[in-house]
TrEMBL record:
PANTHER family xref list: L-THREONINE DEHYDRATASE CATABOLIC TDCB, THREONINE DEHYDRATASE, MITOCHONDRIAL-RELATED
One GO term of the biological process aspect: L-serine catabolic process
Names of the cofactor(s): pyridoxal 5'-phosphate
UniProt KW keywords: Lyase, Pyridoxal phosphate
Matching SUPFAM superfamilies: Tryptophan synthase beta subunit-like PLP-dependent enzymes
Superkingdom of the organism of origin: Eukaryota
Protein name listed in UniProt: Serine/threonine dehydratase
Gene Ontology molecular function: L-serine ammonia-lyase activity; threonine deaminase activity
InterPro entries on file: Ser/Thr_Dehydratase, TrpB-like_PALP_sf
Organism from which the protein derives: Haematococcus lacustris
């Protein structure tokens, strides 16, 4: 992990990349490790050599969004409560901002908060690690004249 930290430190998006590395470590055991599966159909349709699908639909919530929420929760001592307001996300966000302002609390944006974005963004890091592992495994398995047994 320290090698990855030094690689991302010089990038223009270094703060988000470093936060994503921290989120990756923080979320171990907090969210499901979902599979990365090849899609021959999408690869053929797009003309790409390969297309991989990260199966985040297998998370308890049915999406990747729990990664950002769990990461933010790990980074804060404040706890909130769930209140459903409005007919859409714009009404809900407006009400949440007003409530936070009136109560002296902090509003956590699901779009613009660094820890939320880092939690969601760490999936890219996880996927890259899986792809590297898959390509290493594939090249080993294709070694000419080699035989393998389980």
């Amino acid at each position: 992990m320290s090698q990855l930290r030094s690689v991302v430190a010089g990038r223009p998006d270094a703060s988000l990349a470093l936060a994503s590395l921290c989120a990756y470590e923080r979320l171990q055991g907090g969210v499901l490790l979902t599979p990365l599966l090849p899609s021959a159909h999408l690869a053929a349709a797009s003309g790409a050599a390969s297309v991989m699908l990260k199966m985040e639909n297998e998370q308890y919530t049915g999406s990747f969004k729990c990664r950002g929420a769990v990461n933010k929760q790990c980074c804060t001592t404040q706890r909130g409560s769930l209140v459903v307001v409005g007919e859409d996300c714009v009404e809900a966000e407006t009400a949440a901002c007003q409530q936070a302002q009136q109560s002296g609390l902090v509003y956590v944006s699901p779009y613009n908060d660094l820890e939320v974005r880092a939690g969601a963004g760490q999936i890219k890091l996880y996927s890259a690690c899986c792809i590297s592992l898959l390509s290493c495994t594939s090249s080993i398995m294709r070694e000419p004249g080699a035989s393998y047994s389980a």
